[in-house]
């Protein structure tokens, strides 16, 4: 695919609640990497999971990021509006219908030789006759099959700024979930497809995100390859943890921007965010943009000490 658009970075929050210190730190890093390298910077609202996402939450997240001085290029993309693009991408891929329930997958995955966490391939090589039978069995339960990628590689290698070359397994990932005929649900698009299609659409060649997502990068990069998209460069950054060393969560205390603002001015919160990425004595986004040096970002998880 040819792009006349300039290369870009992005931040892609899921709007299921206010961003906490860890999310804000990743957003700041994504903005810094993009702007320091002269890239465009986009916001993508990952509201593909309609049950867990809300427009109100998306608005609050964008307001919080703007309050910190993080600015972005337009337009903001909302995944709930991108169904046609996902459908067009699905057409280009080698796929098959999958009739398995979660339980089927669990049972098949516990068989000897099954690879943990990987789809055991139950529906990959069915005959047309077997498919018609499985389809009718599902229809009797008012269910539609899911669509999976027929992967032609077992593993894929990505390049990450901090982690170097990273090779991981490629699976027959779900691209579209099975729907329920009774509730007239077409079935939700799967995250792995949406993220790759949207990164391609926005010409994202620099993906900054939490390192909990490193494991999904090879499968996503493989999918990009299958769609004829350029391989993005990855920058997976360590997460923020609580005093016990567990990934920071909202229940850990006053960790969202709005909660923190009840206790201290925004400049102080900003200094704390900047200190967590190795920049001291700054109170604004512009100052941190001048001073941030990616080599000083600790590769350990950052522990947030709450009062
Ligand atoms: N929406 C994902 C999250 O909030 C980010 C995924 C990505 O950056 O690729 O964790």
Describe the 3D structure.
Helix 1 crosses helix 10, helix 3 crosses helix 6 and helix 6 packs across helix 7. It contains 10 helices and 12 strands. It has 307 residues and is an alpha/beta fold. A 5-stranded parallel β-sheet has the order 3-2-1-9-10, with helices on both faces. The protein is elongated. The protein has 2 domains: 185 residues, 3-Layer(aba) Sandwich (Rossmann fold), CATH 3.40.50.620; 96 residues, Glutamyl-tRNA Synthetase, domain 3 (Alpha-Beta Complex). Bound molecules: glutamic acid. Glutamic acid binds next to loops.
Topology of this protein?
Elements lengths: L7 E4 L9 H16 L3 E6 L9 H13 L5 E6 L4 H10 L2 E4 L3 H8 L18 H13 L5 E4 L5 E6 L3 E6 L4 E3 L14 H11 L2 E7 L6 H10 L6 E5 L2 E2 L15 H5 L4 H11 L8 H7 L10 E2 L4
Parallel strand pairs: 1-2, 1-9, 2-3, 9-10, 11-12
Antiparallel strand pairs: 4-5, 5-8, 6-7
Helix pairs in contact: 1-10, 3-6, 6-7
């Amino acid at each position: 695919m040819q792009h006349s658009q300039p290369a870009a970075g992005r931040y892609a929050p899921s709007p299921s609640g206010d961003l906490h210190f860890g999310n804000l730190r990743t957003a700041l890093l994504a903005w810094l990497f993009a702007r320091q390298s002269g890239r465009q910077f986009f916001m993508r609202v990952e509201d593909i999971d309609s049950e867990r996402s809300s427009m109100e939450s998306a608005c609050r997240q964008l307001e919080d990021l703007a309050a910190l001085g993080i600015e972005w290029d337009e337009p903001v993309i909302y995944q709930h509006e991108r169904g046609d693009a996902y459908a067009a991408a699905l057409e280009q891929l080698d796929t098959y219908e999958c009739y398995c329930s979660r339980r089927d997958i669990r049972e098949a995955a516990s068989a000897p030789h099954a690879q943990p966490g990987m789809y055991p391939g139950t529906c990959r090589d069915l005959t047309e006759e077997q498919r018609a039978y499985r389809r009718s069995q599902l229809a009797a339960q008012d269910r539609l099959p899911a669509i999976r990628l027929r992967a032609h590689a077992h593993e894929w290698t990505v390049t990450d700024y901090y982690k170097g070359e990273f090779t991981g397994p490629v699976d027959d990932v779900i691209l579209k979930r099975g729907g329920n005929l009774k509730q007239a649900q077409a079935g939700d698009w799967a995250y792995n497809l949406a993220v790759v299609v949207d990164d391609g659409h926005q010409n994202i060649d620099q993906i900054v995100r939490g390192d909990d997502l490193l494991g999904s990068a090879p499968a996503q990069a493989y999918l990009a390859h299958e769609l004829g998209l350029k391989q993005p460069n990855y920058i997976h950054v360590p997460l923020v943890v609580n005093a016990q060393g567990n990934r920071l969560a909202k229940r850990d205390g006053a960790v969202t921007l709005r909660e923190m603002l009840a206790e201290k001015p925004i400049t102080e919160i900003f200094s704390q965010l900047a200190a967590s990425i190795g920049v001291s004595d700054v109170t604004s986004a512009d100052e941190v943009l001048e001073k941030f040096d990616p080599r000083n970002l600790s590769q350990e998880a950052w522990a947030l000490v709450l009062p």
